[in-house]
Amino acid sequence: MQAIILGSAAGGGVPQWNCRCPICTLARSGDRRVLPRTQSSLAVSPDGERWLLINASPDIRQQLCETPALHPRAGLRHSPVEAVLLTNGDVDHVAGLLTLREGQPFRLHATRSILESLALNRVFDVLAAGVVERGEIGLNETFEPVPGLAVTLFPVPGKVPLWLEDGVPEIGAETETTVGAMIAASGRRLAYVPGCARITDDLRDRLAGVDALLFDGTVLADDDMIRAGVGTKTGWRMGHVPMTGEGGAIAGLAAVPIGRRVFVHINNTNPVLVEASEARRAVEAAGWTVARDGLTLSL
Length: 299
Description:
By secondary structure, the protein is of the alpha/beta class. It has one domain: Ribonuclease Z/Hydroxyacylglutathione hydrolase-like (Metallo-beta-lactamase, Chain A, 4-Layer Sandwich). The protein is 18% helix and 27% strand. Keywords: PQQ biosynthesis, Transport.
């Protein structure tokens, strides 16, 4: 099984188009300590020929163009991307669907709640029903979006997409609106959880024994954005568990037997984006890798 992290940043990417925080400023200036990053997306294949795209970020065109494995290979129109899977309905995970409207057949998989959220916005009808088949996937059901690739969706604590919030949303509930994906091929397992509000015993049990985990690394501390002076929301309010702290991902998953541990979906204000920084060294010392665009895992 091969997995390519097409986009490793959270919504807005790095640098974010309108942000002058210290990290975005470094990235925009070309400082080698901060690599530019596009918004969250992953490609997985059992054989390097047929690919599943997990989440379609607003940067998907750039990501596809920069990834030779995903280039057209035959005839006038072709794509090795045979299916797309959504883990939630957030803008940074679904807006790229509008780029995939060019008459290219593929299957779109998601839970009923996520598909219903797309149906509420008719702009997604550009994915013509006769070209893009939408498949509803139940939680804890194993299916093969690509032959040889077994995927099981499971609930993780989260919240509804920002554009569907009505008043104060429920945060941390385990529903169909935020899911993780357990991906298996040739006896190896990869877990992809780009959004998660808290670490639970059920989640620890689910992740035990995986060969690789790609996990929500949006914020280093719950108040990252407040400290940076660019927002008022905490990681919790956005539906993202911090990397550090008593209830954070590093401590919460420390005792769980996991192969490679990689943080993805990293917000532009997260200090771990600065290579060789104190924050980066601490995260790496804890056994985690900070993802970059193009990082490839072979399992």
